Amino acid sequence: MNLIGLGQAGCNIVDRFSQYPQYKIYKIDVGIEGKRCYDVKHQIGPEEYEKNAPSMKTFFRGIKGETLFIVGGSGHISAMCLRIMEQIKDKCELSVLYIRPDTSLLSKNKSLHEKATYGILQEFARSGLLKMLYLVSNINLENILGNVPIIGYNSKINELLVSTIHMINVFRNSEPVMGKIEDPQEASRIATFGISDIEGNEEKSFFSLDRTKEKCYIYSINEERLKTEGDLRKKIVSTIKAQAETEDLKVSFGVFPTNYKQDYCYILNYTSIIQ
User: Fold this and answer.
1) Per-residue pLDDT for 247 more than 80?
2) Angstrom distance (rounded) from CA 131 to CA 145
3) In this predicted structure, what is the pLDDT of residue 255?
4) Strand pairing report for 250-258 and 214-222
C-alpha cells in the first residue's frame, strides 16, 4: 500500500507507518530530505502553494495500487493537495485521510482555507473521484486519550491513529473465524474510524459523523479466549443486532484471533452525507 504524506502533519503520520513493512512511503514538505521525499519551495500563503504546485510525474513514476493520501487541514501547504492528487488519480486507487484540526484555534484566513479544503474533498469523494475520504478530528483523538502532555502531544495522537489504521488494514487482508467484513455501498464514501471494548459498552469515534449509514466491527480477540469462552459468540451477535435495530444501520463484523493479551474492537463508520 502506498502512503503519501503532505505537509508536517501528513509526513509525521506516514513516518509512524514506516515501522511496518507493508507500506511504501512518500513525503512532500518544505525543506524535507531523504528517500522518496519531495522538497517543496516555501510559499507565503495557501493561494501561492496551490498556484505553484509542481509537476510530480517523475516523483510518482510507477505508483500504482491502493494509495492513501494523508494531509492535515491547518497548514498552508495543504492547498496543494488537490493539484497533486490530480496528477496521480488515474495511476492508483486513491483515498484520502484528512486530519481536521481544532478550527477554533485557526486564524481567519487559515479557517477559510481549511473549510474550503474540507468541503472540496468531500465533494470529490461523493462524485467518485476518491475511493474513500477518511475524516479524523484531533479533538476526538485527544478526548479518547484523555489528558495528553504538551510535549509528545502529536506523537501520542499519531500513535493511536496509526496503530488503529494499521490493524484494520491487517484484518481486512485476513480471514475471520466468524463474520465477514463487508464493503460499504457505492455511495458511502465518507468514513471514519473508531474503537470500543468487546462488549460494545462505549464506542469512541475518531470523527463525529452526522448520520452514519453503515458500520463494520472488527473484533481482535485472544485465540485462547475464542477457544474457551462459551458465551462470547452470543455477546458479539447481541451487540451487532442491537446496533442494526436501534440505529437502523447496515452492520457487518468480523472476528479475528490474535496472540495479544488485550482484546480490541475496531470500528469503521460510513456515510454518504456531506459533513
Assistant:
1) no
2) 29
3) 97
4) parallel
State the distance between the two ends of the chain, measured CA to CA, in whole angstroms: 27
Percent of the residues in the chain that have a pLDDT greater than 70, as a whole number: 99
Q: How far apart are CA 158 and CA 12, in angstroms?
A: 8
Q: How far apart are CA 275 and CA 119, in angstroms?
A: 8
The DSSP line for 72-134 is: ESSSGGGGGHHHHHHHHTTTSEEEEEEEE--GGGS-HHHHHHHHHHHHHHHHHHHTTSSS-EE
Residue 241 to residue 158: CA distance in whole angstroms? 32
Confirm if 218 and 168 have CB atoms less than 8 A apart.
yes
State the Cα–Cα distance between residues 267 and 203, nearest whole angstrom. 8
Q: Across all residues in the chain, what is the average pLDDT?
A: 93
Question: Is the predicted pLDDT of residue 199 greater than 80, yes or no?
Answer: no
Give the residue-averaged pLDDT of 65-84. Answer: 94
pLDDT for res 30: 97
Residue 218 has pLDDT above 80, yes or no: yes
Q: How far apart are CA 85 and CA 71, in angstroms?
A: 11
* pLDDT above 90: percentage of residues in the chain: 84
CB-CB contact of 207 with 100 (8 Å): yes
Element counts in the chain: helices (H) and strands (E): 8, 12
The long-range contacts involving 44-52, CB below 8 angstroms and separated by at least 24 positions, are 45/76, 45/109, 46/76, 46/78, 46/79, 46/109, 46/113, 47/79, 49/76, 49/77, 49/78, 49/79, 49/80, 50/79, 50/80, 50/82, 50/83
In the predicted model, is pLDDT for residue 223 greater than 90?
Answer: yes
User: In the chain, which residue ranges form alpha helices assigned H by DSSP?
Assistant: 7-17, 46-51, 81-88, 108-126, 138-145, 153-172, 223-228, 232-247
